[in-house]
C-alpha cells in the first residue's frame, strides 16, 4: 500500500479537527474536534510504524499511550466544562471572555460574563479572575 | 530504506488500497459532518462513525490490537462521556424540522449561531491553508513510498504485547499513575461542594 | 616636639575638632562647646609657641610628597613654610578664631544650629592655618577653597531669610569668579617656574644665580590678582562682602574682617617677587587699591547698617594692604593686616554686642534711641578704642600700621624703591591720604550716631518701638536685614539683659592689641624682611592732620544736624547726608555696582537660561513626549486585539505557525521550488 494514502488521510483529518477547534462554539464540540486531531496523529503513527517495521514498535506503543491520555484528557476536560457550566450557566467558549482588555481605565463589568458568580468585585485589569471563577470558588 | 523500489504505482491499485481509500473517504465525510452539523447530538454520533472508520483503517494497516482498543476506548467510552457532557450541560437541541416548515430559516439561523462561533471563516481559511500545506508536503515526500503489508502482521496482540511489556514497561506504568491522577482530578473537579453552593 | 611638628599640628587640631563637632553635634550636645573652643585655643597656643621658637629667624621648611602629577619636576608636596610672616599671621588667626569661638558660645547660645556652626568655624580655622603655613601652591589652593565653602555655609547660617540665602550664593559665585583665573594662574606660574613650592619660586626669582625670568610675568600676575581680588574683596569683585554681613556677627568678625579676606593679601605678600616682576601688575594693583580704598570709604560714610559700615571699612583697609603690596612693601602690608585683624575683629564683636543691646542694626535707629553707651559700657569703651585705631589716631595700632603703608608709598613715589613704578607710589599715596580723611569721617560718624544719639527722654520701649518703624526712606534696601539678622528680637520686652560675660571679656582681650600693637613697628622688622616700619614725619603729620580734619568736620556737621533734628523731629541727625551731599544716594547703594552687574551679567544669563528652558521644554521634551504618546497609541491599538476570545488567539497562533512552516518548507526546498 502506498504510504501516501494514510498520510494524506491523516493530514486531512487533522485539518478537519483544526477547523472544528477554531470554529465551534460549544466546548464539548471543541473537545470532539480535539479527538479528531488526536486520531489523525494516531493514524500517522500506526502507518509509519507499519512502514518502518520498527523492532520496538514505537509507533504503536505511542498510539496506545495517546489513546490512554486522550481518555484522561476527555475526563478532566468534561469535568472542567461541567464546572464552568455550573458556575456560569453556559458552556459557550466565546462567552468566557474575562481575560479581554477592558474598555476604559475604569473597566466595565465583564460584559460576556455577566453571571451570578461575580459576588466578589472582579477587577478586569488584574490577572486574577481568569476564565473560571470556579477556581475562585473552590479555592 | 528503499522499500519503494518497484512498487506498482498509483494507477494500478491493489484491493487493500481501494478499500482503504473508500473507508478513508467515508471517515473524512463523517468527520466533516461532525464539525459542521448544527445538531450537537448528531455531531457526537457522526464522531462515532469517523472514529470507527479510523479503526477500520488500523485493521487495514494490520494493526489489529490498536483497532480494537480504538473501538473500545473511543467509540465505547469517550463518545459516551461526550454524550453525557452534552446532556449535563443542557446543550441546545434543534427541534426536528423539515425545509417546508415556515420557521425553518429562523431555526436554522438559531442553530448555526448556537453551534458555530463568529470566527468561522477565519477558521476555515486557516484549516484550508493548513490542509493544502500538509497535503502538498506529505505527497511530495511520500509519493513513492510503499508499505509492504504482506510480509507479517505488524500489530497483532502478541506483537504489541511483547513490545509493550518488554520495551515500554516503564512508560506504561507511568501512564497508569497519570490515569489515576486524572481520575482523582475529575472526581475532585466535578464533586459538588457542601454548604449551599450551586 | 620639633617646631615643624607643632606647626603641622596647628591646622590638624581645628580640623579634628570640626570633624568631632559634626559627629557629636546631635548625639552629645554637651561636648559641642568644648569641642569648638578647645582645639582652636590649643592651636592658637601652639601657633604662639611656633612663633616664639621661630623667632623671626631663618625660615623653617619641611615637605613630604603628596602625589605625583605625571611630571617629575612638578610634584605636589605637603610642604610647610614657617617664616616670620607665616607665624605672625598664624598667631593672628589663632587668636581671633579663639576669641570668636568663645564669643560665639555666648552670642549663639540659643541657636539650634550652633553645633554645625561651630564645626564650620573650626574647619575654616584649619583651612586658614593651612593656607598660612603651606608652602605648596596646590595645597594652599585646597585651603583657599575650603575657606570659600565654609564662608558660603556660614554666611547662609540664617538661611531662613532670603537675604542670607542670596548673600551666601553671591559670596560663593563672586569669589569663584576670581578663583578660576587664580587656578589658571597657579598652573601657569608652576609650569614656568618648574615647581609648586612657593619658597622655591621666590628663591629662584630673587637669587642672582638661578637667573629665572618668567616669560609672561604680567599675565600670571594679573591672573593671580583676579583670585586675590575675589578673596580679598577688591574692586571690582568686592560686592559680595557687604552683603555677606547677613551672616552671624562673629562670622563677620572672623571671616569677613580678620582672616579670610586677608588671605588674598597674605598670598600676594608670599609671592611678591612674582608680582614685582611686572610693573603693569603693580600699577594695576595700585589702581585697584586706590579705587577700592576711596570708593569703599565713601560708601561706608553713607551706610545705615552698622555691619555694612564695618564691611565697607574692611574693604577700604584691605585696599591699604593691597596698596602696600603695590609699592612692593610686604612688611607694611602684613603689619597692617595684623593690626587691622585685631581692631576690626574687635569692631565686629563690639558691634554684635551693640546689636544685641539695641535690637537693631540700623545706626539711625540707634541714634534715635540713644543711651546705648550706658547699656553696653564694655562695647562702648572697646569700640571707641577700635574706632580710634581705625581712624589712625596715634598712638593706636592703626596709626603705626597705616603710617608704614603710607611711608612705603612715599618711598615709591619719590623713586626710592627699586623696580617699583613711581606712578604706583603716587596713586597709593594720594588715595591713602584721601582715604585717611574719609576713614576718620566715617569712624566719627559711626561713633557719634551709635553712642551720642539723642538722649532717651521717653520711656525706652515706646521710643524704640517708634524708632523701629522709622527706618529712614533713603536706605530701604537694608531695612529687611535689620530685623532679620538680629537673633534676639524679644529683648526689649524684658528690659536690658546682661550680655554674657564671655562676650565682654573677649572684647577687652582684643582691645589690648588694638591699643598697643602699633608699638610692634619696633620689633616686627626682625620678623619680616628687615625694612623699617617706623612712621616718617611728613606722612605722619599729613595723615594725622587729614584724619583730624575729617573727624572734626564730621563732628561739626553732626552738631549742626543734631540741632536741626531737634527742631524738626522728622529729619535724622546723620552727618553723612550733609557731608556727601548729592553723592550720598549713590554711595549708599555701593555706587550702583550691583545694578551694573545685573545689567551686564545677570540679565544675559537669565535670558540664556530662559532660552535653554524653552529649548528643553518645547524642543527636547517634544521628542520625549512624542515617544510616550506614540507608545500609548500603539498600546491602544494592540489592546484592541485582546478580545478575550480564546479561539481568536488560537487562530492567530495557528496561522502564524503555518506561515512559519511554509517558510521553513520553502527554505528547505530551495527558494520555494518555483
Protein architecture, described:
The complex is a heterotrimer of chains A (139), B (198) and C (674). The longest helix of chain A is centred in the middle third of the chain and has 31 residues, at 58-88. Chain A contains 4 helices and no strands. In chain A, helix 1 (4-23) packs antiparallel against helix 2 and helix 2 packs antiparallel against helix 3 (58-88). Chain A is mainly alpha-helical. Chain B has 7 helices and no strands. Chain B has 198 residues and is mainly alpha-helical. Chain B is globular. Chain B has helices at residues 15-36, 40-60, 64-88, 104-115, 120-142, 157-167, 169-190. The termini of chain B are far apart. Chain B has a single domain, classed as NADH-ubiquinone/plastoquinone oxidoreductase chain 6, subunit NuoJ (Four Helix Bundle (Hemerythrin (Met), subunit A)). By secondary structure, chain C is mostly helical. Among the domains of chain C are: 278-472 and 504-588, no CATH class; 591-642; 645-674. Chain C contains 29 helices and 2 strands. In chain C, strand 1 and strand 2 (76-82) form a beta hairpin. In chain C, helix 4 runs antiparallel to helix 5. Chain C is globular, with a radius of gyration of 31 Å. Mean pLDDT of chain C is 78; it is low at 455-496.
Any key phrases for this structure?
heterotrimer, A: 139 residues, mainly alpha, Helix Hairpins, 4 helices, B: 198 residues, 7 helices, 0% strand, globular, disordered N terminus, NU5C-like (chain C), transmembrane (chain C), NADH-quinone oxidoreductase subunit L (chain C), NADHpl_OxRdtase_5_subgr (chain C)
Could you describe the largest sheet of chain C, including whether it forms a barrel? Answer: 2 strands, antiparallel
Largest interface: A-B, 75 and 94 residues
Number of strands of chain C: 2
- Major sheet attributes of chain A: none
Helix content of chain A: 55-70%
Q: Provide a count of the helices of chain A.
A: 4
Mean pLDDT of chain A: 76
Give the terminus-to-terminus CA distance of chain A. Answer: 55 Å
Amino acid at each position: 500500500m502506498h504510504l501516501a494514502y494514510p498520510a494524506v488521510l491523516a493530514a486531512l483529518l487533522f485539518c478537519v479537527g483544526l477547523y472544528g477547534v477554531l470554529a465551534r462554539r460549544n466546548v464539548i464540540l471543541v473537545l470532539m474536534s480535539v479527538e479528531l486531531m488526536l486520531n489523525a496523529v494516531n493514524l500517522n503513527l500506526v502507518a509509519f510504524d507499519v512502514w518502518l517495521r520498527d523492532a520496538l514498535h514505537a509507533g504503536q506503543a505511542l498510539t496506545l499511550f495517546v489513546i490512554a491520555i486522550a481518555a484522561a484528557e476527555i475526563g478532566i476536560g468534561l469535568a472542567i466544562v461541567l464546572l464552568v457550566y455550573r458556575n456560569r450557566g453556559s458552556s459557550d467558549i466565546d462567552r468566557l471572555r474575562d481575560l479581554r482588555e477592558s474598555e476604559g481605565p475604569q473597566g466595565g463589568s465583564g460584559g460576556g460574563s455577566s453571571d451570578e458568580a461575580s459576588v466578589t468585585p472582579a477587577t478586569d485589569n488584574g490577572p486574577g479572575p481568569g476564565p473560571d471563577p470556579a477556581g475562585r470558588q473552590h479555592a | 530504506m528503499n522499500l519503494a523500489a518497484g512498487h506498482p504505482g498509483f494507477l494500478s491499485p491493489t484491493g487493500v488500497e481501494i478499500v482503504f481509500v473508500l473507508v478513508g473517504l467515508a471517515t473524512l465525510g463523517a468527520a466533516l459532518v461532525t464539525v459542521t452539523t448544527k445538531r450537537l447530538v448528531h455531531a457526537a454520533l457522526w464522531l462515532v462513525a469517523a472514529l470507527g472508520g479510523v479503526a477500520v483503517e488500523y485493521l487495514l494497516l494490520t494493526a489489529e490490537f490498536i483497532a480494537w482498543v480504538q473501538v473500545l476506548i473511543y467509540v465505547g467510552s469517550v463518545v459516551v462521556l461526550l454524550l453525557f457532557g452534552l446532556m449535563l450541560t443542557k446543550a441546545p437541541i434543534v427541534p426536528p424540522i423539515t425545509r417546508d416548515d415556515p420557521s425553518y430559516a429562523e431555526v436554522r439561523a438559531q442553530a448555526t449561531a448556537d453551534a458555530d462561533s463568529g470566527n468561522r471563516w477565519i477558521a476555515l481559511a486557516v484549516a484550508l491553508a493548513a490542509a493544502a500545506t500538509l497535503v502538498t508536503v506529505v505527497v511530495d515526500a511520500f509519493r513513492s513510498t510503499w508499505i509492504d503489508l504482506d510480509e507479517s502482521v505488524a500489530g497483532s496482540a502478541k506483537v504489541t504485547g511483547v513490545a509493550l511489556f518488554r520495551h515500554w514497561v516503564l512508560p506504561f506504568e507511568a501512564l497508569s499513575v497519570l490515569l489515576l491522577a486524572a481520575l482523582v482530578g475529575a472526581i475532585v473537579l466535578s464533586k459538588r461542594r457542601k454548604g449551599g453552593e450551586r | 616636639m620639633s617646631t615643624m611638628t607643632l606647626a603641622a599640628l596647628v591646622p590638624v587640631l581645628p580640623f579634628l575638632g570640626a570633624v568631632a563637632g559634626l559627629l557629636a553635634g546631635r548625639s552629645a550636645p554637651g561636648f559641642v562647646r568644648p569641642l569648638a573652643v578647645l582645639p582652636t585655643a590649643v592651636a592658637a597656643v601652639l601657633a604662639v609657641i611656633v612663633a616664639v621658637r621661630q623667632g623671626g629667624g631663618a625660615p623653617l621648611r619641611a615637605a613630604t610628597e603628596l602625589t605625583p602629577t605625571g611630571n617629575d619636576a612638578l610634584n605636589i608636596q605637603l610642604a610647610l613654610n614657617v617664616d616670620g610672616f607665616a607665624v605672625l599671621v598664624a598667631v593672628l588667626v589663632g587668636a581671633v578664631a579663639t576669641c570668636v569661638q568663645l564669643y560665639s558660645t555666648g552670642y549663639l547660645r540659643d541657636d539650634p544650629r550652633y553645633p554645625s556652626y561651630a564645626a564650620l568655624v573650626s574647619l575654616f580655622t584649619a583651612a586658614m592655618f593651612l593656607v598660612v603655613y603651606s608652602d605648596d601652591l596646590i595645597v594652599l589652593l585646597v585651603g583657599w577653597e575650603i575657606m570659600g565653602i565654609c564662608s558660603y555655609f556660614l554666611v547662609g547660617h540664617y538661611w531662613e531669610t532670603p537675604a542670607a540665602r542670596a548673600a551666601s550664593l553671591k559670596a560663593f559665585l563672586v569669589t569663584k569668579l576670581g578663583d578660576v583665573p587664580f587656578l589658571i594662574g597657579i598652573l601657569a606660574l608652576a609650569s614656568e617656574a618648574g615647581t609648586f613650592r612657593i619658597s622655591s619660586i621666590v628663591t629662584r626669582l630673587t637669587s642672582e644665580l638661578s637667573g629665572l625670568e618668567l616669560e609672561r610675568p604680567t599675565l600670571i600676575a594679573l591672573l593671580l590678582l583676579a583670585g586675590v581680588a575675589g578673596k580679598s574683596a577688591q574692586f571690582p569683585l568686592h560686592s559680595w562682602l557687604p552683603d555677606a554681613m547677613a551672616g552671624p556677627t562673629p562670622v563677620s568678625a572672623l571671616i569677613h574682617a580678620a582672616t579670610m579676606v586677608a588671605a588674598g593679601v597674605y598670598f600676594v605678600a608670599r609671592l611678591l617677587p612674582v608680582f614685582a616682576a611686572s610693573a603693569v601688575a603693580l600699577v594695576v594693583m595700585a589702581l585697584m587699591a586706590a579705587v577700592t580704598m576711596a570708593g569703599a570709604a565713601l560708601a561706608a560714610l553713607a551706610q545705615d547698617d552698622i555691619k555694612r559700615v564695618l564691611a565697607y571699612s574692611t574693604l577700604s583697609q584691605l585696599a591699604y594692604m593691597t596698596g602696600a603690596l603695590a609699592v612692593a612693601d610686604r612688611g607694611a602690608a602684613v603689619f597692617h593686616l595684623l593690626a587691622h585683624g585685631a581692631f576690626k575683629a574687635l569692631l565686629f564683636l563690639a558691634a554684635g554686642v551693640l546689636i544685641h543691646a539695641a535690637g537693631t542694626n540700623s545706626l539711625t535707629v540707634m541714634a534715635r534711641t540713644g543711651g546705648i553707651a550706658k547699656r553696653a559700657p564694655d562695647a562702648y569703651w572697646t569700640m571707641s578704642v577700635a574706632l580710634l585705631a581705625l581712624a589712625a589716631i596715634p598712638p593706636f595700632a592703626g596709626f603705626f600700621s597705616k603710617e608704614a603703608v603710607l611711608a612705603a608709598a612715599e618711598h615709591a613715589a619719590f623713586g626710592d624703591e627699586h623696580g617699583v613704578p613711581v606712578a604706583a607710589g603716587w596713586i597709593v599715596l594720594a588715595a591713602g591720604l584721601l582715604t585717611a580723611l574719609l576713614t576718620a569721617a566715617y569712624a566719627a560718624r559711626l561713633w557719634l550716631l551709635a553712642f551720642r544719639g539723642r538722649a532717651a527722654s521717653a520711656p525706652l520701649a515706646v521710643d524704640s518701638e517708634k524708632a523701629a518703624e522709622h527706618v529712614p526712606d533713603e536706605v530701604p534696601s537694608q531695612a529687611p536685614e535689620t530685623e532679620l539678622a538680629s537673633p534676639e528680637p524679644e529683648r526689649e520686652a524684658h528690659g536690658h539683659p546682661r550680655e554674657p560675660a564671655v562676650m565682654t571679656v573677649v572684647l577687652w582681650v582684643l582691645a589690648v592689641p588694638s591699643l598697643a600693637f602699633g608699638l610692634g613697628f619696633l620689633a616686627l622688622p626682625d620678623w619680616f624682611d628687615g625694612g623699617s616700619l617706623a612712621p616718617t614725619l611728613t606722612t605722619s603729620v599729613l595723615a594725622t592732620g587729614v584724619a583730624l580734619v575729617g573727624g572734626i568736620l564730621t563732628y561739626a556737621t553732626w552738631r549742626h544736624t543734631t540741632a536741626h533734628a531737634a527742631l524738626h523731629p522728622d529729619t535724622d541727625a546723620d552727618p553723612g547726608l550733609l557731608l556727601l551731599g548729592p553723592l550720598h544716594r549713590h554711595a549708599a547703594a555701593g555706587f550702583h555696582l550691583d545694578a551694573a552687574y545685573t545689567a551686564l551679567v545677570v540679565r544675559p544669563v537669565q535670558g540664556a537660561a530662559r532660552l535653554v528652558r524653552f529649548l528643553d521644554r518645547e524642543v527636547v521634551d517634544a521628542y520625549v513626549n512624542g515617544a510616550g504618546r506614540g507608545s500609548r497609541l500603539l498600546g491602544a491599538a494592540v489592546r484592541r486585539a485582546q478580545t478575550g476570545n480564546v479561539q481568536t488567539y488560537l487562530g492567530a497562533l495557528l496561522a502564524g505557525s503555518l506561515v512559519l512552516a511554509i517558510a521553513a518548507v520553502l527554505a528547505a526546498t530551495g527558494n520555494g521550488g518555483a
